[in-house]
Amino acid sequence: MTTDPTRDLLPEGLEDRLPQSAAAVARIQRAVLDVMRSHGYDRVRPPLIEFEASMASRMDGLSTRQMFRFVDPKSLRTLALRSDITVQVGRIAATGLSGAARPLRLCYAGQVARIAGDMLDPRREELQLGAELVGADSVAAAGEVVEVAIEALEAAGATGVSVDFTLPDLVDTLADGPLPLDAATREAVRRELDAKDAGGLVEAGGEAYLPLIHAAGAFDEAVERLDAIDGAGVLDSRIAGLKEIAERVRGRARLTLDPSERHGFAYQSWLGFTLYADGVRGALGRGGTYRIGGSDEAATGFSLYPEGLVEAVKADEDLGRRLFLPLGHDREAAARLRSEGWRTVAALSEADEAAELGCSHRLDGAEAISVRS
Amino acid sequence: MTTDPTRDLLPEGLEDRLPQSAAAVARIQRAVLDVMRSHGYDRVRPPLIEFEASMASRMDGLSTRQMFRFVDPKSLRTLALRSDITVQVGRIAATGLSGAARPLRLCYAGQVARIAGDMLDPRREELQLGAELVGADSVAAAGEVVEVAIEALEAAGATGVSVDFTLPDLVDTLADGPLPLDAATREAVRRELDAKDAGGLVEAGGEAYLPLIHAAGAFDEAVERLDAIDGAGVLDSRIAGLKEIAERVRGRARLTLDPSERHGFAYQSWLGFTLYADGVRGALGRGGTYRIGGSDEAATGFSLYPEGLVEAVKADEDLGRRLFLPLGHDREAAARLRSEGWRTVAALSEADEAAELGCSHRLDGAEAISVRS
Predict the structure, then answer these.
(1) How far is Cα A264 from Cα A333, in angstroms, rounded to an integer?
(2) pLDDT value at position B56?
(3) What's the domain of life for this entry (chains A, B) (predicted)?
(4) Fewer CB within 10 Å, N- or C-terminus of chain A?
(5) What is the pLDDT of residues B228-284, one digit of tens each?
């Protein structure tokens, strides 16, 4: 056999998860799925691969350029490895589940990949978990989704969860109403607001939008500053909705508002939010209201990307109590102890030793006894 | 937005799993992982994608031709979407976990893909679950692995599990010893044995191997017929090993022996086995002893491909009891009922109705009451 000198290398941005880290991922995934399930979300499983054209047609504003693409020898069409599951769940809602009653609650968990990582996160593959409430983008829908997202993160072991709200169509709403802007200026204003550049904003002709830069921060103060903006009357329903959602989750999460932040979600409608937790670098997830690409059905959902949480907890992840089973052990006793939560490690030869195999206990007769003297 | 007329189509051999089927997959995956974990197998998570050359160098006899391949814009090297996780776990054992104590017990669960399905199974993506016992290919190791595989299938809901044993290096062992064959004849004999073609076997010069065709069937009789073959002395340790393993799992599974069957596993050494269950078309999994490609370390393991079981059980898969929560419901009562196993479905508007949303019960005060009159 010829040996490739780079045989042991993985491509940049791809990695093996070893037991501690894999156990953390598995525990987090179960906890999040269990919370979503308990709130009535049914899991669906779309495939890893789809036609690129099909994926693109439902992404409306996003592109498939970030996806691994390749020609299908069967159909001779271009396939893409998914970089997002939300789009696939939207497709399922619009096709296989088009006849299911609305609101339709769906959830998912799976790996996604992209051809390039970024400065903040070089990973090119990660786990995406999420829930979509299809057929509703009301305040009640958004309140439920935010609450489920927080509960899911807590169940996964995140502490100090915070939610940063935004109003993705804020500039359009103001520009179509009390603070008119032409199309070119509108785009420039959005850009300067994203950059939080007050000077640039004035220069771009967006002076009237200056208060938005200051209407960001702790939720209660920020929402009042937003309400005080000239022409904020057109925002009344959004502001009332934000307050209702905040009221519902108050005390369970730190709440902030950054009304003109766009998070790069081209398909969000009136509400967006980003999720953070203590000790985790970067966002753990995001969500909001949107229209499903293609069917244009209203929906609300969130996606979690728990890699940051895994990094934060993996060193302390508990792999469970291990019980060594000597040669000729009592198999019924071993089965009983497994059913009580022990992980058994059976000796295969006289050479196997409890401590070396990570066992704190050994089976002695029908009892687990400590191997530490 | 332009609409692709094939937007709703998935590529051949790829499918969405809707709630019933996705729930069956999730339940089966958890059950199998829990059994492997309880027997001391630690989960690892290799990436979906690797360098093609790296994957190929560890596959020793298998090829990457069945894999989706594409050029990595980062490294400009060819990547492959995995078609098998066993090879990746072997790599992990030989690299990241090379220093871990042996025997090393690892397990995994994940999606694999291949560019072409086959007549028996057109699927191009499926779930693979399995366990690898690294550092041992003894009878004790094989006995443990067969037992864990059976227990995992039972926990997943399979009934009438059967195990078909084989001896992958049987022809080589006989041909190197009492029933000599030159290399060309050896390959022809293997081929005719696979085809169970007695005439072809004689024509190929393998008359002495005829009894192997008849040494297949119910385990106890077949193993005696194998033992009676001229020159079977070289098989003594294998036959004793088979009997010991059969003794260990007798009563838990139907056992058969097909000593010259190869299952297409080029990398198996002395023992191979295939797993079946009642009501499931085709094999549910396979396993055996082998040498890890590259490091040449002894190992024993099994892989399950539960799609057939999912098909068999999905119509009856239980999605759980759903409890409708009317507007203004008691949130603490709802949380308590969720913790007791209920799945709650909250009304978002007056239009939402319990029965239409699949709820058998509704929350009335703090109690769940039936909505069926």
Answers:
(1) 56
(2) 86
(3) Bacteria
(4) C
(5) 987 878 999 999 999 999 999 999 999 999 998 876 666 689 999 999 999 999 999
Contact B11 A50 (CB under 8 A): yes
Sketch the domain layout of chain A as residue ranges. Answer: 10-159+279-319, 169-261, 322-370
pLDDT for B220 beyond 50: yes
Rounded Cα–Cα distance for residues B288 and B303 (Å):
9
Correct CATH for B10-159+283-319 of 3.30.930.10, 3.20.20.370, 3.30.70.250, 3.40.50.880: 3.30.930.10
Contact A19 B42 (CB under 8 A): yes
**Res. B1 pLDDT band, cuts 50 70 90:** very low
Tell me if A85 is assigned to a ligand binding site: yes
CA A274 to chain CA centroid, Å, is: 9
pLDDT at A3: 54
Helix (H, G, I), strand (E, B) or coil at B61: coil
Q: Do A123 and A66 contact (CB within 8 A), yes or no? A: no
* Nearest alpha-carbon partner for A14 in A111, A127, A125, A128: A125
Q: Which of B2, B3, B7, B145 to mutate to test the interface with A (most CBs of A within 10 A)?
A: B7
**Quick one: closest CA in A to B93, which residue?**
A18
DSSP state of A342: P
Chain A contact set for B47 (CB, 8 A): 10, 14-16, 125
Query: How far apart, in whole angstroms, are the C-alpha atoms of residue B197 and residue B193?
Result: 6
Q: CA–CA separation, A212 vs A309, rounded Å?
A: 32
Whole-number Å distance between alpha carbons of A367 and B17: 44
Separation in Å, CA of A103 to nearest CA in chain B: 8
For B78, which residue in chain A has the nearest alpha carbon? A11
A9 interaction partners in chain B (CB closer than 8 Å): 51, 54
Question: Is B194 annotated as contributing to ligand binding?
Answer: no
Residue A6 annotated as binding site? no
The torsion region of residue A102 among left (phi > 0), alpha (psi -120 to 50) and beta comes to: beta
Nearest CB neighbour to A138, from listed B51, B294, B348: B348
The tokens for A77 are: 């069409």
For residue A132, which amino acid is it? E
Query: CA B174 → CA B205, B260, B274, B290, distances in Å?
Result: 14, 11, 23, 19
Give A319-337 as a 3 state SS string: CCCEEEECCCCCHHHHHHH
Chain A positions in Cβ-Cβ contact with residue B74 (cut-off 8 Å) = 11-13, 115-116
List per-block mean pLDDT (blocks of 10 residues) for chain A, which spans 373 residues.
65 96 98 98 98 84 83 94 95 96 98 89 95 98 98 98 95 93 93 92 94 94 92 91 97 95 74 97 95 92 97 95 97 97 98 96 97 79
Which chain A residues have a beta carbon less than 8 Å from that of B50? 10-11, 14
Q: Which of B37, B51, B293 sits opposite A6 (nearest CB)?
A: B51
- B257 by Cβ neighbours in 10 Å (0-12 / 13-18 / 19+) ranks as buried
Topology of domain A10-159+279-319 in CATH is BirA Bifunctional Protein; domain 2 (3.30.930)
Averaged pLDDT for residues B313-326: 96
pLDDT above 80 (res B62): no
Q: What is the pLDDT of residue B59?
A: 73
Q: What is the pLDDT of residue A263?
A: 67
Alpha helices in A70-218, H assignment, sequence order: 86-94, 139-155, 170-175, 183-194, 198-203, 210-214
Interface predicted TM-score (ipTM) of this complex, two decimals: 0.95
Distance between CA B291 and CA B136 in Å, rounded? 10
The structure tokens 């935010």 sit at A146
pLDDT at A1: 44
